[in-house]
Amino acid sequence: MRVVFDFGGVLFRWHPPSFLARVWPQRCPDEAAGAVAAREFFTQYAGDWGAFDQGLIGPEEVIHRIAARTGWPEADVRAVVDAVPSELQAVAGTVALIEAAQAAGHRTHYLSNMPGIYADHLERQYPLDRWFESGIFSSRVKHSKPGAEIFSLMEAQLAVPPEDIVFLDDHPDNIEAAAARGWQAILFTTPEAASATLRERGLIR
């Protein structure tokens, strides 16, 4: 079996409301305000941030576009873009889940919507080559989830029947797209819940 992990919100901490409350305390005094700002800043990972995810624009352009769209000062927008690597901390429970999948004889991979500068950072800071046999970053293939193209690229890389792919992601749209292709798609909420689901399916001990 091939077990495929998303990164932000699954293997790495990614919670925009609390992130923006930390980075922008003057603008987001609490998580509720952070959630409102996050919807405007990241636009549900479409628009300008979606283009950043897909590697179609770089950090300077996304900063300029977000500032122009929202009216926020470019310096404020840059502070958020620059702070993302500090938000992307490995989640210990998910690392343990990867190790459990490997111990059970499964091969592990990743499929992540990730701008290039952050993908580079994660490769420098974490042992991705130990955790995963292979993977795809959206910025390096110019496609992103939930688009069909990136799932097709993953299938070509894995070269197994769709039903032999177990996929963990925290976004319902991505899960629906994977399930429609015949993948065993599991909506990730916490490492503990994901572990329980994999145990119920007999995939890990």
Automatic annotation (TrEMBL):
Transmembrane region positions?
Answer: none
Q: Which SUPFAM superfamilies match?
A: HAD-like
Q: Which domain of life is it from?
A: Bacteria
InterPro entries per record: HAD-like_sf, HAD-SF_hydro_IA, HAD_sf, PGP-like_dom2
Q: Which Pfam families match?
A: Hydrolase
Which Gene3D superfamilies does the record cross-reference, listed alphabetically?
HAD superfamily/HAD-like (3.40.50.1000), Putative phosphatase, domain 2 (1.10.150.240)
Note the CDD domains from the entry.
HAD_sEH-N_like
Matching PANTHER family, A to Z? ALPHA-D-GLUCOSE 1-PHOSPHATE PHOSPHATASE (PTHR43611), FLAVIN MONONUCLEOTIDE HYDROLASE 1, CHLOROPLATIC (PTHR43611:SF3)
Protein name in UniProt: HAD family phosphatase
* Organism listed in the record: Roseateles subflavus
- Classification lineage: Bacteria, Pseudomonadati, Pseudomonadota, Betaproteobacteria, Burkholderiales
